[in-house]
Amino acid sequence: MPAVFFFLIDVSMNAIQTGATAAACSAINQVIADLPKAPQTMVGIATFDSTIHFYNLKRELQQPLMLIVPDVQDVYTPLQSDVIVQLAECRQHLEILLESIPTMFQSNRTADSSFGAAVKAAFLAMKSTGGKLLVFQSVLPSIGIGSLSAREAEGRSNMSAAEKEANKLLQPVDKTLKTMAIEFAEYQVSVDLFITTQSYVDIASLSVIPKTTGGQIYYYHPFSAVSDTAKLYNDLRWNVTRPQGFEAVMRVRCSQIDCDKTIMVTLKHDDKLHEGSECAFQCALLYTTVYGQRRIRVSTLSLSCTNMLSNLFRSADLDTQFACLLKQAANEIPSAPLAQVRDQATNVCINILYSYRKYCATVTSSSGQLILPEALKLLPLYTLALLKSTGLRSDGRIDDRSFWISNVSPLPTHSVIPLVFPRMIAIHDLDDKDESDDSIIPSHIPLSSEHITDEGIYLLENGEDCLIYVGNSAQPNILQQLFGVSSLEEISNQFVLQEFENPLSKKLNAVVNEIRRQRCSYLRFKMCKKGDASGMMFFSYMVEDKLSSGLSYVEYLVHIHRQIQSKMP
C-alpha cells in the first residue's frame, strides 16, 4: 500500500472570509516537504462549497485543471486516474495550486457546505489505494449527503433537561455519516478532521468519521487567522510526520493507528491465579509503514500474581487507573444524565478507597481519619477535576463537550491527567528563579485562586491550550518585557507570543517551547483578563476552589470520607 495523502479544503464564503482557507493552504504547502520521501508517496487535493472541485495534477499539463462535481447527492469522481498522483510528479503544480486557491475563491458568495458529499467523493478517488484523508472544515454541512441542521438552539433550551435524561445532542443526528465511515475503514481510508470555525458545526455528528476510521479531530474555536494559523500548521505537520502505520490489524481491522492513540481493554479471568506465579499479557499489531513496509509489533507485559490486596495498592498505576476512569465516563456521557455520570465517577473513587481502608489499613488507624494509599493519594483530586471538566459540566457549548468526548477517547495515558488537571506556573517572576535549578519549567502552583494575585501573571496549560492570565495590577515594566505593551488594555485577545530582547521574555519563550516539546503539541494561546468571559474561563480551571460546577477540594475529601465511613461495619 503506498502512502496516500488527500487534502480536502472548505472554500465556502465563511471559510474564505475568516482566513481559514488561506491558513489551511499555507499549512499544507509547508508540510509537503515533510511527507514521506518515497517514490510511491501519492497526493491529491480537492476543494468544496456547494459543489466539489477536483484538480488534475499531472505534470504534462501546463497548470492544474479544475474538474467540478455539481451533484452532491449522487457523487462521483470525475477521473479514474490523475486525481491522485505521485508527489514527485506533481509537487510544483501542487504548490502553485495551494498558493492560488485563496485568490481563486476570494469573491465566493456560496455559504453552503457539501462536506459529506465531498468526503464521499474523495473516498471514491482513494478507494483503490487507501490512505489519509485530511479535511479542513469551517461551517455546518448544509447541503448534499450527510447535511446537518443547527441543533444547538435546541440544546440551549434543553440543558436543564439533560440532567434528567440522555442528551441527544451529544449523539450523531442519524447513521448516514457512520455508515460512510464504516465503508471508509473497510478500504483502509483514515479521515482526520480540522475544524476551523466560529460557530456551531455539530461535532457530535461529524466526529463519528475520524473516530470510526482511526483518524483524529482538531478543533479551533473561535478560529482566528492571527493566533491559530501557526497551531494549525504544527498540528498538521505532527499529524503527517508522527510514527504511524496504515492497514493496522489488532483484534479488529482499523484504517490507521499512530503514537497519539491508546487502546483500552477490560479483561475478565475466571480461573484462579496462584500466588507468586507470572501472568503475561501479549498484544500483536500488524500494520504498514508510511514507506509501504508490512510489519508486526508484539508487546508483552509480565506481572507477578499476588493474594495480598496491599501489594496491589502498592503497585497501582495512578495515571492508568485514572485514564480508565475518564474514558469510561466519556463513553457514558452521550447516553446517560450528567449527574449520573458524575456520581458513577465519584463512586469508583469511593469504592477503591473503601477497599483500601477495609482490607489494608492497620488496626490502630483512627476511624475519623481519611486514609489514602500512597500510590493513589491524588485520586480524589483528579476525580474532582474530572467532575469539573468540560465534558461533565452542565454549562458550556454542545460542540465543546462533543469535542471533549471525541478527544479523550483515544487520548494517550500520559496526556489524560494534564487535560483535566492543568499545570499552572507564575511567569512574572521567572527572573527570580533559582539558577541552581536545572529545570526550564518552574514549579507548578496549586489550582486555587488563593495562589493568584492581582499583581501576578500566570500561565496555565493542559496539553491543548495555553492560557495566560494577567492581573489588573500587573507591573507595566513586566508587561513591557513579556508582551511589548505597558498596559493590560493594549494586549489583544488574539494573542501571539513573541520573543523580545530581554531575559524575561527569553525565559518565557524557553518555558513555552519546553512545554510544547513535552506535550508534542503546539498549544493554542488565549489571553485571559479579570472581569470578562476569558477571566471566567481561566478561573474555571481552579479545581481546588468551590465553583458552580462542584465542591472545593476540602469539601470533596470530606464527602468521600463520609461515604467510606457509611460503608464501614
Main β-sheet description: 8 strands, mixed
Nearest-angstrom radius of gyration?
A: 26 Å
How much of the sequence lies in strands comes to 15-25%
Low-confidence stretches: 161-166
Structural class computed from helices and strand pairing: alpha/beta
Number of strands: 16
Please describe the topology of this protein.
Blueprint: E1 4-10, H1 13-18, H2 20-31, E2 42-48, E3 52-56, E4 65-69, E5 84-86, H3 87-104, H4 115-126, E6 131-137, H5 152-158, H6 176-186, E7 189-196, H7 203-206, H8 208-213, E8 217-220, H9 229-241, E9 244-249, E10 253-258, E11 278-289, E12 294-304, H10 309-314, H11 318-332, H12 338-359, H13 379-387, H14 398-408, H15 413-420, E13 423-426, E14 457-461, E15 465-470, H16 476-483, H17 503-519, E16 524-529, H18 533-539, H19 553-567
Parallel strand pairs: 1-2, 1-6, 6-7, 7-8, 15-16
Antiparallel strand pairs: 2-3, 2-5, 3-4, 9-10, 9-11, 11-12, 13-14, 14-15
What does this structure look like?
The chain is α/β, with parallel strands linked by helices. The chain is built from 19 helices and 16 strands. The chain has helices at residues 13-18, 20-31, 87-104, 115-126, 152-158, 176-186, 203-206, 208-213, 229-241, 309-314, 318-332, 338-359, 379-387, 398-408, 413-420, 476-483, 503-519, 533-539, 553-567, and strands at residues 4-10, 42-48, 52-56, 65-69, 84-86, 131-137, 189-196, 217-220, 244-249, 253-258, 278-289, 294-304, 423-426, 457-461, 465-470, 524-529. Strands 1, 2, 3, 4, 5, 6, 7 and 8 form an eight-stranded mixed sheet that branches. It has a four-stranded antiparallel sheet with strand order 10-9-11-12. A four-stranded mixed sheet has the order 13-14-15-16, covered by helices on one side. A hairpin with a 3-residue loop joins β2 (42-48) and β3. α11 packs across α14 (398-408). Mean pLDDT is 90; it is low at 161-166.
